[in-house]
Amino acid sequence: MSSTPPLRNDEIRGMTLRQPFAACVLAGKDIENRPRRWRPGWFLLHAGQSLDRSALRDPLVARAIRGRELVTGAVLGLVRVTGCHQDPEGAKPCTPWAFPGRLWHLELADVHELALPVPAAGRLGPWRPAADLVERVLDQLPHLRTTERSLT
Questions:
Q1: Strands 41-51 and 12-19: what pairing?
Q2: What is the mean pLDDT of residues 44-72?
Q3: What is the pLDDT of residue 8?
Q4: Residue among 9, 66, 7, 19 nearest 46 (CA)
Q5: How far is the C-alpha of 33 from the C-alpha of 10, rounded, in Å?
Q6: Helix (H, G, I), strand (E, B) or coil at 14
Q7: Which of 17, 24, 32, 39 is the most buried (most CB within 10 A)?
Q8: Do the beta carbons of residue 149 and residue 135 sit within 8 Å?
């Protein structure tokens, strides 16, 4: 885990991933595939309600989630998107986690897993979490909190 500066509550957005991919991020998955470009920043890592059962048969996924509970409908951590790119046409995918094609690859870093998942509803695309949800997450990650406790 890298040293990260404190962040402001209003800088945090949310990203929802289906399981088992949310658990894979906690285990080191460093690319998330999306149909559109996203801006860098901090995101609540939210596990959606549904489970992608076909992904459970992928050996890369199976190794990543081994021994992990596949919690759904909750925020599991905080992650930073550091960049977003597309692989050049015909090029080998940038990592084993990158899907080929015209998808955007969100570059993930600074993953901070919560000790206790926080139940929450997510949304498609980047979303703005409610202030109380951000507070409940940052209560478990006090080293990331600024001295201000309210959204500006």
A1: parallel
A2: 96
A3: 66
A4: 19
A5: 25
A6: strand
A7: 32
A8: yes
